[in-house]
Amino acid sequence: MSDTIIEVSGLHKAFGKLQVLKGIDMSVRRGEVVCIIGPSGSGKSTLLRCVNLLEEPNSGTVLVNGFEMTDPDVDIDKARRMIGMVFQGFNLFGHLSVLDNLTIAQRKVLKRDAAEATAIARENLRKVGLEEKASSMPSQLSGGQQQRAAIARALSMQPAVMLFDEPTSALDPELVGDVLGVMRQLADEGMTMLVVTHEMQFAREVADKVLFMDGGVVVEEGPPAQVIGDPRHERTQTFLHRVLNPVHVTD
Amino acid sequence: MAMSRRQRARAFRGVQYGVLVLAVVLLAVFADWGTIRDAFFNLDAASTQFPEILSTALVNTIIYTALGFALGLGLGLILALMKLSSVGPYRWLATIYIEFFRGIPALLVFIALGYGVPLAFGIRFDIYSTAAIALGLVGSAYIAETLRAGIQAVPPGQIEAARSLGMSQARTTVTVVIPQAFRIILPPLTNELILLTKDSSLIYLLGLVRDEYELAKFGREGLNATGSLTPILLAGLCYLIITVPLGYLSRYLERRTGRKVDEGLKVTA
């Protein structure tokens, strides 16, 4: 088993004429928490979505957990089972209860029986603090609860790596803490995580490595103390200055 | 002379009530109430209609409609999936079918099935099969378009979530897309059912024996037998027994799922 679980090389992605990713090289090691930060439009979400091939890259390779995602002959459904994904908009299945949201893929994809799937689902609901919401419908939950349920849904597949696409951006400020708390707990348990986020404090405290992206390239990467605490590049400095002192920004 | 806003509103309302009162007075004075009562509310003619109008005609109308709707729903789902297929010829075939059966009168389909097919191919279906096929062919074209719109209204995030969990495209369609699409299209689908209920009256063209009469044919036979319009009125009322509750059901579902969809959009925004 190799130490590197995600390996991205030479990744290019364009939407029509718009070049979004202009040659990305990056890797994530097993057990590592990597945060991607950067201004909107920098391509960080697109990069994340290329990792589980929700977006198809124009060129370059993506290797995840031994699967070459960019190979047209890869069994993409099998590869994705091992890659948990958490979306900005939660995307819980609106027609299913919270518990069914957690069991449906276990049963239909992993072919677990109902008892086993339910047991795993309840275990993960307990982990995110939503045990008593198992029979609720997603629309009855707050945004923060929905996002925690979505995390529990991804965890129920027992993935090798978790991808988070701005998981707290759609939440009211007072609900952000619950979700970040669950993510921090996951990191502490050794889960491999690739996180696109605007939460600088989370990146600073939890990440092993931070990537700063701008204009479709990785401008700077390194430990959080360096990239967030003492950035080398001017673009990183400008971005962090704006994010950390939003009230005092002068153009 | 300038009127205030309040004066203008009052004058406008006054004119409307005036026209209404005039119309009622004219009707009361000039209409021949005796003849109208004999034509539409003839109790002797009405009594000859019961109980068959309910036990035979109403029941048959419901059966024909239900069979046609069931076939139309199955065929419509296949057509909708064809129309959304990535394979060009499937899309073209579905488009041609839908445009054809949506564009021609249902009457032609009934004539073709009732007289054309037996003449050309020597195949004769029983009346229930013919009704189901004819109504199904016509209904499926409308239902397919409704279903397609519903499937496309399922938020893309739902599909991405399913695919991210390792579901195949087919599995995603069956497990996530179709159940959610049905919730979205339940109100318009109820309207298709109302249209199909009325179209079932065309079955009279196929030549029915008395046990097979549906409401329109039954009313017409009643008209011939009694010389009174009362059976026609009764048949019309029987259609309303079916369609009015369906209309309310449709509006109820619209309100309910409308709220759900709003919440759903908030969830998946």
From TrEMBL, chain A:
Annotated catalysed reactions: a polar amino acid(out) + ATP + H2O = a polar amino acid(in) + ADP + phosphate + H(+)
Q: Which family does it belong to?
A: Belongs to the ABC transporter superfamily.
Q: Which GO terms describe its molecular function?
A: ATP binding; ATP hydrolysis activity; ATPase-coupled polar amino acid-transporter activity
Q: Which residue windows are coiled coil? A: none
Query: Sorted alphabetically, which keywords does the UniProt record give?
Result: Amino-acid transport, ATP-binding, Cell membrane, Membrane, Nucleotide-binding, Transport
Give the principal location in a single coarse category: membrane
**SMART domains given for it?**
AAA
- ABC transporter domain residues are 6-240
The reply to whether Transcription figures as a keyword in the UniProt entry is: no
Name it. Answer: ABC-type polar-amino-acid transporter
Give its localization: Cell membrane
Its topology with respect to the membrane? Peripheral membrane protein
CDD domains, alphabetized: ABC_HisP_GlnQ
* Lineage of the species this protein comes from: Bacteria, Bacillati, Actinomycetota, Actinomycetes, Pseudonocardiales
Asked whether the UniProt record includes Transcription among its keywords, one would answer no
One Pfam family, short name: ABC_tran
List the EC numbers from the record.
7.4.2.1
Question: What InterPro entries does this protein's entry cite?
Answer: AAA+_ATPase, ABC_ATPase_HisP-typ, ABC_transporter-like_ATP-bd, ABC_transporter-like_CS, MetN_ABC_transporter-like, P-loop_NTPase
Gene Ontology CC terms: plasma membrane
TrEMBL record, chain B:
Entry's Gene Ontology cellular component terms: ATP-binding cassette (ABC) transporter complex
Record domain ABC transmembrane type-1: where: 58-250
Question: What GO terms describe the biological role, i.e. biological process, of this protein?
Answer: amino acid transport
Cellular localization per UniProt: Cell membrane
- Pfam families in the record, alphabetically? BPD_transp_1
This entry's Gene Ontology molecular function terms read:
transmembrane transporter activity
> Its membrane topology, per UniProt?
Multi-pass membrane protein
Transmembrane feature ranges: 61-82, 103-121, 229-249
For this protein, the record's InterPro entries field holds: AA_ABC_transptr_permease_3TM, ArtM/GltK/GlnP/TcyL/YhdX-like, MetI-like, MetI-like_sf
Q: What is its main location?
A: membrane
Q: What SUPFAM superfamilies does the record tag this protein with?
A: MetI-like
Keywords attached to this Swiss-Prot or TrEMBL record, sorted alphabetically, are: Amino-acid transport, Cell membrane, Membrane, Transmembrane, Transmembrane helix, Transport
For this chain, the family text in UniProt reads: Belongs to the binding-protein-dependent transport system permease family.
NCBIfam families named in the record = HEQRo_perm_3TM
What is the official name of this protein in its record? ABC transporter permease
